[in-house]
């Protein structure tokens, strides 16, 4: 997302003239001979992107990132967009005068362009608010944008002009842009107690009766968004409306005083909705307990966009009311606030520029540099983030500032954990928790406890993870949160997934998603969607999993979160593999490995190597599989991840079985089973028992195979994972057929049901059942269905079995 700060002096709106056409970015218009040409939003964005980069070829990937940011589309969508653009510009593909195709690369704008000024008839006199994309393009909130401050000295005006240069690329027009300036105290709006905000109904100044509802609707939506954050108390809409008659005739200060006397309100928001240039605009005022006013404005495609914009703005201004301004410098503080709002919405690259400016303007300020380090960590710039965080840690200890000491430790611990340095990470978190407890700061205690819970989850210490997260919920309640936050719910979902409790995982993921969407937190919303993709994959809903994973990847790429992008690539690889698209899965896993290695994300490196080994095994490339799996085992051991290492040992045993080394495979699995049972039963034990059953079946021991499968069933039944249970029943049906007990096999297949519909292993069992009954035609039908479902997992031995079925059916 790109910010568009207002420049000093008169507003200049750049337009572009070429041939008979004129493109006006601010009003999102294309004119021909002065008359508007009807364009779909994405067609406009496509033309604008090519025009602003007219000196070069714009490749297809860049166009996807810009025009369809946060979405997964095919090249067919781009082709249709190009056709519509050429039709609007009266251009021809065979004889291009405006848009030229550069085959194998992308497109280039070739028409001569003359920059001109766009008319300012509709421009506001006091506030700068650049319209954004329509609501159909996934509206999200933008950051607060500083407006002219005539009292700024010349040096700050220079920096203000630098700020104007941030994000003026037409290819990333903001969906919503907010403008505002300080009146009164520019250092901030601290209070002596907790914040309690009243939002009054907004006046509908659009003249459109269909928007009469928006005054109340926007009031309620902003309240919901702020309440979900848990750190800003908001007076209920009913209480505000009941008091409205008693506010008539009072001035602004009088209204706040009456609300304070009756309900303990500390801050008041009121304003007016208007329509400018086809966009909705909200001008509003935030009044503090001393009567000081902060005037803001928000522009968006619809009421929902306005609500998220205002919610993001107010959550940053009021959410940390107990924390002093980032700096004594008003310009640095405003840049810092903008950066925080951007990071909340996931625009990490944009936030970096504002944090950097704030740090340069106020080099001694701690919090702008702290937020800069967090943003760099998310972008995968781990070395730079580590250096900065260690400097901040030393500085915080020297200052003996509890908040600084705690924040630096928590942030550095997360970075170290991703680098596989768990021991130092846990030491820092323990120190941070002690600091928070000693200073009676439950909000920060909760943050640290969630971090501890995440590390415990990845170590598969699920009991400890649940304990940390339960304590985090208690700490959040003590801090005033109404129910668990999205971070806690998402962390609980990851514990549930590891434990095999898919029902609870789904409930926690949906709860986390609702909270992050309510606050417009796109970055964390994408993280939760990644968890949902994992859940759908475990449920056997592979196409849903693939689509979710693809969307997650697109969002993380658009947000510039390289760490999350690498993880999302692994998730997409797993989803494609389940659909039988192994070579495509290999491409995604290879990309994940390359990205994770470049940013030093060691757990993701290990996971990508493991996936490459599994896919190579399924493709029959045993040499490559062994190389990748042994590399993954080494990587997991290097970061002291016992669970990850054990999973690689299981995959290596599967490889031994595929190579005909049944004795070696069984020996490894038995040792692994013994270790797992000693540590306490986990869902992973079920996987190992399933593999041991297959080895017993290979050895001609159906009774031994049945014993292992029934042992697995005992462990699986309490988990309530329908898919896992049905896989085990299908395995028992296969064992019964091997023992010649058709009736028992039919009974087990009936228990398996149809949840595994499309699973090639189940389809093979159905084929074997039909053959055992003597129905060769039905057996062929099931085997052919298995081949379709297996995709690239179909092996030579599978093809040989299909050939046998075909011969039997012809007889």
Describe the structure.
- With 811 residues, the protein is of the alpha+beta class.
- Among the domains are: 20-111, Arc Repressor Mutant, subunit A; 122-166 and 175-364, Rossmann fold; 521-657, Serine Threonine Protein Phosphatase 5, Tetratricopeptide repeat.
- Helices cover 62% and strands 9% of the residues.
- Strands 9, 10, 11, 12, 13, 14, 15 and 16 form an 8-stranded mixed β-sheet that branches.
- Strand 1 (14-18) and strand 2 (21-24) form a beta hairpin.
- The protein is globular.
- Mean pLDDT is 80; it is low at 1-12 and 120-192.
Features:
alpha+beta, Arc Repressor Mutant, subunit A, disordered N terminus, Serine Threonine Protein Phosphatase 5, Tetratricopeptide repeat, 8-stranded mixed sheet, 811 residues, Rossmann fold, 9% strand
Spell out the blueprint of helices and strands:
Blueprint: E1 14-18, E2 21-24, E3 29-32, E4 35-36, H1 41-52, E5 58-59, H2 60-67, H3 75-88, E6 99-102, E7 106-109, E8 114-117, E9 144-146, H4 154-164, E10 177-182, E11 196-199, E12 203-204, H5 214-229, E13 233-234, H6 237-247, H7 252-263, E14 267-276, E15 279-287, E16 293-300, H8 303-319, H9 330-345, H10 348-361, H11 366-378, H12 382-399, H13 402-418, H14 422-438, H15 442-458, H16 462-478, H17 486-499, H18 502-518, H19 522-538, H20 542-559, H21 562-578, H22 582-599, H23 602-619, H24 622-638, H25 642-658, H26 662-679, H27 683-698, H28 702-716, H29 722-738, H30 742-752, H31 760-773, H32 776-790, H33 796-810
Parallel strand pairs: 9-10, 11-13, 11-14, 12-14
Antiparallel strand pairs: 1-2, 1-8, 2-3, 3-4, 5-7, 6-7, 10-16, 14-15, 15-16
Helix pairs in contact: 1-3, 5-8, 6-7, 8-9, 9-10, 9-11, 10-11, 11-12, 11-13, 12-13, 13-14, 13-15, 14-15, 15-16, 15-17, 16-17, 17-18, 17-19, 18-19, 19-20, 19-21, 20-21, 21-22, 21-23, 22-23, 23-24, 23-25, 24-25, 25-26, 25-27, 26-27, 27-28, 28-29, 29-30, 29-31, 30-31, 31-32, 32-33
């Amino acid at each position: 997302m790109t910010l568009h700060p207002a420049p000093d002096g008169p507003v200049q709106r750049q337009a572009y003239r070429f041939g008979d056409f004129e493109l006006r970015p601010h009003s999102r218009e294309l004119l021909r001979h002065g008359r508007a040409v009807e364009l779909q939003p994405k067609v406009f964005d496509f033309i604008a992107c090519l025009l602003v980069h007219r000196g070069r070829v714009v490749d297809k990937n860049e166009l996807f990132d810009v025009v369809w940011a946060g979405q997964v589309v095919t090249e067919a969508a781009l082709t249709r967009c190009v056709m519509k653009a050429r039709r609007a510009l009266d251009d021809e593909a065979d004889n291009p005068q405006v848009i030229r195709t550069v085959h194998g690369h992308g497109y280039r704008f070739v028409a001569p362009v003359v920059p001109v000024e766009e008319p300012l008839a509709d421009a506001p006199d006091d506030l700068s608010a650049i319209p954004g994309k329509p609501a159909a393009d996934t509206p999200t909130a933008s950051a607060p944008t500083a407006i002219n401050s005539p009292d700024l000295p010349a040096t700050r005006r220079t920096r203000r002009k630098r700020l104007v240069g941030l994000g003026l690329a037409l290819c990333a027009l903001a969906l919503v842009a907010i403008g505002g300036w300080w009146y009164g105290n520019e250092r901030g709006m601290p209070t002596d107690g907790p914040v309690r905000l009243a939002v009054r109904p907004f006046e509908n100044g659009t003249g459109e009766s269909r928007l009469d509802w928006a005054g109340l609707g926007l009031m309620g939506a902003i309240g919901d968004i702020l309440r979900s954050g848990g750190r800003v108390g908001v007076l209920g809409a009913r209480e505000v409306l009941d008091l409205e008659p008693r506010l008539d005739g009072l001035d602004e200060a009088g209204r706040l005083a009456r609300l304070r006397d009756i309900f303990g309100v500390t801050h008041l928001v009121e304003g007016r909705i208007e329509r400018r240039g086809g966009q909705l605009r909200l001008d509003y005022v935030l009044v503090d307990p001393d009567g000081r006013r902060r005037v803001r404005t928000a522009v968006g495609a619809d009421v929902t966009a306005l609500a998220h914009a205002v919610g993001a703005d107010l959550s940053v201004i009021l959410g940390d009311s107990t924390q002093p301004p980032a700096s004594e410098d008003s310009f640095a503080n405003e840049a810092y606030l903008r950066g925080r709002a951007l990071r909340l919405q996931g625009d990490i690259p944009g936030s970096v520029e504002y944090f950097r400016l704030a740090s340069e303007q106020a080099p001694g300020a701690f919090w702008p540099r702290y937020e800069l380090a967090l943003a760099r960590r998310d972008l995968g710039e781990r070395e730079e983030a580590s250096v900065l965080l260690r400097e901040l840690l030393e500085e915080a200890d020297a200052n003996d500032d509890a908040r600084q000491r705690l924040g630096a430790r928590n942030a550095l611990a997360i970075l170290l954990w991703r680098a596989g340095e768990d021991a130092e990470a846990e030491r820092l978190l323990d120190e941070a928790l002690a600091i928070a407890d000693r200073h009676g700061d439950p909000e920060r205690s909760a943050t640290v406890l969630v971090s501890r819970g995440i590390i415990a989850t990845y170590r598969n210490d699920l009991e400890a993870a649940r304990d940390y997260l339960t304590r985090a919920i208690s700490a959040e309640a003590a801090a005033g949160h109404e129910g668990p936050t999205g971070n806690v719910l998402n962390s609980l979902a990851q514990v549930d997934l590891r434990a095999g409790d898919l029902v609870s995982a789904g409930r926690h993921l949906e709860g986390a998603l609702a909270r992050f969407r309510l606050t417009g937190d796109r970055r964390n919303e994408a993280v939760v969607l990644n968890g949902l993709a994992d859940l759908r994959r475990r449920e056997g809903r592979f196409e849903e999993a693939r689509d979710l994973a693809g969307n997650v990847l697109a969002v993380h790429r658009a947000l510039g979160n390289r760490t999350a992008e690498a993880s999302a690539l692994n998730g997409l690889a797993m989803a494609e593999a389940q659909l039988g698209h192994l070579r495509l899965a290999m491409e995604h896993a290879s990309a994940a490995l390359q990205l994770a290695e470049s940013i030093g994300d060691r757990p993701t490196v290990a996971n990508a190597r493991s996936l490459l080994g599994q896919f190579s095994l399924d493709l029959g490339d045993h040499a490559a599989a062994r190389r990748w799996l042994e590399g993954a085992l080494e990587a997991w051991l290097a970061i002291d991840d016992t669970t990850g290492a054990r999973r690689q040992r299981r995959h290596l045993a599967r490889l031994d079985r595929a190579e005909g080394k049944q004795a070696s495979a069984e020996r490894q699995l038995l040792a692994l089973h013994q270790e797992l049972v000693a540590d306490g039963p986990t869902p992973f034990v079920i996987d190992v028992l399933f593999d041991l059953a297959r080895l017993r079946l290979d050895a001609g021991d159906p009774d031994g195979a049945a014993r292992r499968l029934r042992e697995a069933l005992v462990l699986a039944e309490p988990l309530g994972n329908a898919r896992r249970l049905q896989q085990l029943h299908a395995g028992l049906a296969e064992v019964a057929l091997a023992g010649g007990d058709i009736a028992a096999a039919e009974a087990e297949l009936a228990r398996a049901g149809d949840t595994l519909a499309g699973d090639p292993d189940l389809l093979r069992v159905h084929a074997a059942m039909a053959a055992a009954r003597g129905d060769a035609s039905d057996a062929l039908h099931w085997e052919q269905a298995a081949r379709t479902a297996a995709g690239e997992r179909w092996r030579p031995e599978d093809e040989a079995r299909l050939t046998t079925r075909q011969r039997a059916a012809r007889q």
